[in-house]
Amino acid sequence: MYGWWGKVLLVDLTRMKTREIILDPETYRSYIGGRGLAVRLLWDLVPPGADPLSPYNALVVASGPLSGLPLPSSGKLVVASKSPLTNGYGDGNIGTMASHHLKHSGFDAIVVTGASRKPVYIYVENEKVEVRSAEHLWGLDTFTTEDKLVREHGRNIGILEIGPAGEHMVKYATVISQKGRSGGRPGIGAVMGSKRLKAIVVKGTREPPIADKNSLRSISEEAYRKLLESEGYDYWIRQGTMATIQWSQQNSVLPTMNYREGVWELYETISGDLMEKLKTDRRGCPYCNMQCGNVIADDAGEESELDYENVAMLGSNILLEDLRRVGEVNKMADKLGLDTISLGNAIGFYMEASERGLVRERLEWGDFKAVREIVVDTAYRRGLGAFIAEGVMRMSTSLGGEALDFAMHVKGLEVSAYNCHTTPGMALAYATSSIGAHHKDAWIISYEVKTDRTSYSREKVERLIFLQNIRGGMFESLTTCRLPWVELGLNIEYYPKMLSAVTGLEWSINDMHTVADRIYTLIRAFWIREHSGWSRSMDYPPARWFKHPLTKGPYAGHHLDPLRYEKMLEAYYEMRGWNENGIPRRETLLKLGLDFTIPILEKIVELG
Length: 608
Ligand code: PTT
Ligand code: SF4
Hints:
Layout: E1 7-12, E2 17-22, H1 25-31, H2 34-45, E3 59-62, E4 76-82, E5 89-95, H3 97-103, E6 109-113, E7 120-125, E8 128-133, H4 142-153, E9 158-161, H5 164-167, E10 175-177, E11 181-183, H6 188-194, E12 197-203, H7 213-229, H8 233-239, H9 243-250, H10 272-278, E13 279-283, E14 293-297, E15 303-306, H11 308-314, H12 323-336, H13 340-355, H14 368-379, H15 384-388, H16 392-399, E16 409-410, E17 413-414, H17 424-432, H18 445-448, H19 458-478, H20 483-488, H21 494-503, H22 509-530, H23 544-547, H24 562-576, H25 586-591, H26 598-601
Parallel strand pairs: 1-6, 7-12
Antiparallel strand pairs: 1-2, 3-4, 3-6, 4-5, 7-8, 9-12, 10-11, 13-14, 14-15, 16-17
Helix pairs in contact: 1-2, 2-19, 2-22, 7-21, 11-13, 12-14, 17-19, 19-22, 19-24
Bound molecules: tungstopterin and iron/sulfur cluster.
């Protein structure tokens, strides 16, 4: 078999045993890799109803057939688990040298089950696998952890680690790599912490099995060249994702004051233009010629790597002025191992609750000093930080009443940085995303604001499913960065071509859609399996976008319409082959080869 090694490494930290799981070629063809492989492994290995922070949960680190190979922006991998934040399927995508090393190790993925009694880290060097003591690393921040591991093992390794937030099982702790790459928003870092797993270190030196190396080389060289020659390349290199601050402001979708507004009069204090003036360096993921990690010197005079989501959530959403200050909070989140999107949401939610007099301890909008303290307390679950560490869904449920209306999450995952009072398509994208309110699966908002912005059309739903399949299905399973396609318009046909060259099998974009449909539906089945009393209300965006109209900017007075949203959701279900409650129909499961889910699902819900 070309393209895959055909085996997955399983490390059981309770028994301190390792073994190989051999997978058949059909499984690889059906799920490709990355997210696809991860959800299939989680379905098979995690007992239904398992507590995500118990030894029964599994952590999956999965590469895809294209990751870690010399082709555009391939240095990515997927970290996945049953999420402690949402109790559903959770994953994240991280740019890291660990992608290259896993690809060259002889394994397609690493699965960790059980839990160690003492802190450990896993060391994989090709077929050699060791579980080593991490007593000397436990309690350290992610930057120091990485420095120490490099000192112990040399530079030629890939490292995934957690910080204090993961150790204290903060519900939105992430996995960090390379001092500024973060993945696994729905608490995948907390799952590592629950297993007392501080880090995974991989060193791979084996030659991956590629069917047609010459063809891969020429497709890949051409694709790299197209990117360099693309019209937007220079601007991208200057601003990267930070250009989105200005775009969001211009389009009234910049999250401001816990998504109360879509514009902020002080947006220039955190803009991409300002970032350009402060920029000291540029970093990024392996195999990428678009290096989009913009580094500035923060308020503490240290380096901070900025991206749009971080800056919007820790800037306009909590009214924190000054990019250097935002950068400092961002860097703290990276060191502590906290997701910046959920953190900015949880702090913004608390600030609003404080303004409304719903909580005793005060927290003012934009209070930099208080925010810095709260971020550290959150990672260590101290005082008010223990409340904020639980995430917006649990915070709002414990306050109840009006707090439920300004709780910005879907299925428990906090909303990423787009305010959707006037963009029903993006609201539906959040509501039906496979991990909760994240934009990775369908960033339809960029299309929406250019076309029939406030409409609830079927055409938008079709476009949304196309995007979910390409972004959430194809890119997440291949696994490569989607930004060459999204930002610089790299022709999408390069991807099936590269996959064909690597695997020696014929792939087309249509095949990608079929696999993506399968992955989406299996993820949906996983959610239903783990949530008794599943209903379509799980697929609603936050109440604020229906109930609290914008008060500022050109769209003042606008909000979403619940009845028209319902119609859109109905169209979505119909196109996906799911019933009126968002449950896949029996014939859909059979058509996608997901028949193994039927005996389990039909005990829980009506399949129809
Ligand atoms: C991603 C989410 C994002 S999406 C951002 S900024 W973005 C935030 N980044 C964080 C961070 O940084 N530090 C931190 N402590 N928490 C953070 N939380 C937020 O996490 C990221 C890039 C970006 S930057 C984006 S859009 C694209 N995302 C991709 C994706 O999801 N899939 C894919 N195939 N390619 C992608 N390319 C781009 O990668 P999650 P990264 Mg990330 C500092 O992980 O869980 O998916 O959440 O991986 O290596 O940092 O690259 O404006
Ligand atoms: Fe990483 Fe940015 Fe390159 Fe994507 S474009 S691989 S996020 S550096």
